């Protein structure tokens, strides 16, 4: 079961919010705190999700840096 940083269960298609500025490996920019990631997809790891971020495309994020919005 995939959970966010507050322990709330995440499902495919949910929207989540980034709770900390994150540097992205292989990219020149960062994902700022408060960025909304819409329509997430669950991976086969419980602590990761896939989501599309503006100007960066599809990336994998750790759920410990996200909260459900």
TrEMBL record:
Protein's UniProt name: PhnA family protein
Transmembrane segments: none
Gene3D superfamilies assigned: SH3 Domains (2.30.30.40)
Residue stretches making up the Protein YjdM C-terminal domain: 3-68
